[in-house]
Amino acid sequence: MIGPDEQTDQEQVKALQDEVDQLRQALVSRALVDQAIGVVITVGGLRREQGWEVLKHISQHTNVKLREVARCLVEWPVRRRLPEVIRRALPAAMKHARARSGAEADACEREPEVSCGRPG
């Protein structure tokens, strides 16, 4: 029979194993997202932060999880095709990212020390 201390220890070990598994999955997802951003900025001639905006925009407007959007975009150069929903959302997402960056650039010119964190 397992004593109370041993059961608590087993529960703690299980909780730590679960946490390690979640952290490993997060690292894999992060790498996948970074690769997808690279694909988007290469295809669209965007900056890194715009690439991130594109991924978020596609995910939010297609109801597809961000890591799935990232996976599809990373596989796109090899497979030479995107799922229809992502293919249709990509141009609008790029346009949105460019427009958003343009608005931020305009704000930087008006109020550089507040909007951009530039020294005054």
UniProtKB/TrEMBL annotation:
Residues 13-74 form the ANTAR domain. Residues 98-120 are annotated as: Disordered. GO terms for molecular function: RNA binding. PROSITE patterns: ANTAR. Pfam families: ANTAR. Residues 101-113 have a biased composition (Basic and acidic residues). This is ANTAR domain-containing protein. It comes from Streptomyces capoamus.
